[in-house]
Amino acid sequence: EVHLVESGGGSVQPGGSLRLSCAASGFTFSRFAMHWIRQLPGKGLEWVSAIGTAGDTEYPDSVRGRFTISREDARNSLYLQMNSLTVGDTAIYYCVRTIAAPWSPIDHWGQGTLVTVSS
Amino acid sequence: DIQMTQSPSTLSASIGDRVTITCRASQSINKWLAWFQQKPGKAPKLLISKTSILESGVPSRFSGSGSGTEFTLTISSLQPDDLATYYCHQYNRYSWTFGQGTTVEIK
Lengths: 119, 107
Description:
The structure holds 2 protein chains of 2 kinds.
Chain A: E1 3-7, E2 10-12, E3 18-25, E4 32-39, E5 45-51, E6 57-58, E7 67-72, E8 77-82, E9 91-99, E10 106-109, E11 113-117
Parallel strand pairs in A: 2-11
Antiparallel strand pairs in A: 1-3, 3-8, 4-5, 4-9, 5-6, 7-8, 9-10, 9-11
Chain B: E1 4-7, E2 10-13, E3 19-25, E4 33-38, E5 45-49, E6 53-54, E7 62-67, E8 70-75, E9 84-90, E10 97-98, E11 102-106
Parallel strand pairs in B: 2-11
Antiparallel strand pairs in B: 1-3, 3-8, 4-5, 4-9, 5-6, 7-8, 9-10, 9-11
């Protein structure tokens, strides 16, 4: 059974940094593309980053230059380094996977980890 | 970015009713649209991919249709377990985007 378990969330002040982790199990991690999706207060969903099996990455403009997605296949782990955090980054952050092929949908989500940016 | 607009934002229906949710894209996304169901306190769950492909284990009362810029999710006979918020999602190209969600309430 596929399991994605996020950790590393918490409270941080504006301008601070946080590193999220996602532990994957139940599938061959190295064969899947991985993403971070966040759910903002009031429920909106926003795609935050993507990483392919070759380590290629994608970001939306809202986080490019501040967030860095990475993966460690030997540890079946996904990471999100978040710098220069703002109040607008407050959200539940989900780790999700897709098949490593064009136009593949998200098929599994983790349970999420809450990030709160507040002074 | 491709904007996804869902309607309605909230709907209230009775058990057994046919329910339709609409999702419009600001530009063509071909058939690369998914629908997710999110119950309170839970992560979203994939219901439908590529506009109309039902995920394994999803009840057959759910169906999807459309192409280009207009898509619909239909629940043919609403059940109590369908109380949830539903999101459309385009994965035609980065940046991926989501609709704002439709909350289904049971009358």
